[in-house]
Amino acid sequence: MAASTGDDVLPDTGRLQVGISGAGPAGLLLAIGLAQHGHSVTVLETLASPADRGTVNRDRSYPVDITARGMAALARFGVTADGSPLRRRTLPFYGHMTPWGPEALASAGLIGTRDDVVLGLLEFVGEHRAAWPGRVDVRHQVPVTGVDLAHKVILLEFVGE
Questions:
Q1: Element of type H or E holding 25
Q2: On the chain, which terminus has fewer CB atoms closer than 10 Å, C or N?
Q3: Are 156 and 144 in contact (CB under 8 A)?
């Protein structure tokens, strides 16, 4: 993940132009937070959107349970509100079963696949971006090969004839 710094600050507003490599849960939550604070964010993702390829993908669709600290972090950005896309895409999670019996959580978390979480965050961006002072632009199927921090650029794989 790479963020612009220094002379990339927009002169009149003090706002950043930020590039994020990877539209997974962390990249999307970072983009949401930056846009909510007025920054302009472009997220580049190599894979197709889970909305296009489905949320069951062997390489990307492992189970995720979000509890305590994760829920608190997500709540700071408003993504866990009742009826939110993340809540619609995941299920409530109340604890684990251990050999010694159930281990309940102090407060309910969320459980779903990684792609369900990603899709919930993408839908959250779509539903709320107009209300934010900054912007988020997520681009799928952009093959990122690296980040050159010295030149402040994201390196892309050339796909052509």
A1: helix 25-36
A2: C
A3: yes
Please tell me what DSSP assigns to residue 83. T
- The pTM for the full model equals 0.81
| Contact of 79 with 88, CB cutoff 8 Å | no
Dist. CA 48–CA 51, nearest whole Å: 8
Look-up of token digits 């709540």: 75
Q: Are 88 and 120 in contact (CB under 8 A)?
A: yes
Residue whose token pair is 């492992």: 62
Picking from 114, 122, 147, 129, the residue whose alpha carbon sits closest to that of residue 21 is 147
Q: Amino acid identity of 103?
A: E
* pLDDT tens digits, one per residue of 119-143: 999 999 999 999 999 999 999 999 8
Rounded CA-CA distance 44/27 in Å is: 9
Query: Cα dist. 132→64, 88, 109, 120 in Å?
Result: 28, 22, 26, 18
CB 138 within 8 A of CB 31: yes
Residue 5 has pLDDT above 50, yes or no: no
Per-residue pLDDT of 61-114, as tens digits, reads 788 899 889 999 999 999 999 999 999 999 998 877 778 877 777 788 999 988
Residue 42 bridge partners (DSSP): 19, 137
